[in-house]
Design brief:
The protein has one domain. The chain is about 25% helix and about 20% strand. The protein contains 5 helices and 6 strands. Helix 2 crosses helix 3. The longest helix is centred in the first third of the chain and has 20 residues. It starts with a helix and ends with a strand. The relative contact order is 0.17.
């Protein structure tokens, strides 16, 4: 498991997840499987987000055959108003459950992204489209009415430490310039409790964000280094 291979990562549990719950079992399984994914798809530094998401979904489903949860790609997230949106991967307890109990969003992390998309892990450049990962969770259009979810960053150049620091710098800018976004950004939105950076293939951190309806969502962040 990830906790065996990368003990500093799983040594940072989300304190809001109780031991023995299905969420804790999911996190343990997810971290273990992300290691398998990283080992198999290392070098995929030019693949699109869609292609990597497809491969991640197949990897999770292959190794979850004996688990008590189901992974569904492009899960619909029902909206109170407007058009329903889709999350990259929804996690369900049973095939008959109408809504996921956990969701996973994924973004590419590369300096080769177009200028208008470079900060999409956090925030998109158009408030009307809500293309940012954390942004969508704060708007409650992803992880609808959930308290726990995850965001995965596919690191396709630089390294995990670079992107951890860069993403936190973007969030800090939003905290200091709240007029940039209609959302309220505070220090708890920052990624914290990072794992040890040394020789890591996967970096884990956590954050706590307030949604527009004033509820909270705890996010587990995983940066997967795909660079050779």
């Amino acid at each position: 498991m990830l906790r065996d291979n990368y003990n500093n990562i799983s040594g940072i549990p989300n304190p809001s997840i109780k031991k023995g719950t299905i969420k804790e079992k999911l996190i343990i399984f997810l971290e273990d499987t992300l290691c398998r994914f990283q080992e198999h798809f290392i070098g995929k530094v030019n693949e699109s987000e869609e292609t990597l998401n497809e491969q991640l979904g197949k990897t999770l489903n292959f190794f979850s055959k004996n688990q008590t949860f189901i992974f569904q790609a492009e899960t619909k997230q029902k909206q109170l108003k407007g058009i329903d949106r889709r999350i990259d991967i929804g996690v369900f307890r049973l095939f008959s459950d109408p809504d996921p109990f956990f969701t996973i969003e994924a973004k590419r992390l590369t300096t080769l992204m177009p200028k208008n998309r470079e900060k999409e892990y956090v925030l998109g450049n158009n408030p009307a489209k809500l293309s940012g990962g954390i942004e969508r969770y704060k708007h409650n259009v992803h992880g609808v009415n959930l308290e726990h979810s995850a965001i995965i960053g596919y690191v396709q150049n630089k390294d995990c430490k670079h992107w951890y620091l860069k993403i936190n710098s973007w969030i800090q800018e939003l905290i200091e310039n709240n007029n940039v976004s209609p959302l309220k950004w505070v220090t708890s939105d920052l990624l914290n409790h990072p794992s040890n950076f040394t020789d890591l293939k996967i970096l884990k951190s956590i954050s706590e964000s307030e949604k527009v309806d004033q509820t909270k969502i705890f996010l587990n962040h995983y940066f997967i280094n795909l660079c050779q």
